[in-house]
Sequence to fold (151 residues):
Amino acid sequence: MAGLLEQAKQFVSDTVASMAKPEATVTDVDLKSIALGSVTYNAKVNVSNPYSTPIPIGEIRYVLKSSGSEIGTGKIPDPGSLKASGDTLLDVEIKVPHSILVSLVKDIAVDWDIDYELQVNLVVDLPLIGDISIPVSSKGEIKLPSLTDFF
Fold:
């Protein structure tokens, strides 16, 4: 009897492992706004849902790094659902205090941009399986606005 139970567990495990899962990519990271105490960046994350039913997103967790240091972290609870059988574009807003940007002066002074690494973790609730995490990361440069961008 124990052998039959182990076979059933292995079958379920193999079936779940071979199922198609949602996939995500970061398509863009850009400056959104500048306020007195912080700068807000907007990351666009495209998520493909292979299932014919919408999937609820439990939360989005993110970490923005530059020069090896974390400059922005946070989470967005209950941001909505993934569209059925298609792509959903999610906006992830990241606030970075000006005090942290000052520590990046050396990087900014060289080429007037911030070299970044963004790590995003989407937690989705798949029926019958439960919560799964979809990790996605991206590296690139965020160009900073110049005076000509304001006038």
Notes: The beta strands are 23-34, 38-49, 55-66, 69-82, 86-97, 113-126, 130-143. The first helix runs from residue 2 to 18. The first strand starts at residue 23 and ends at 34.
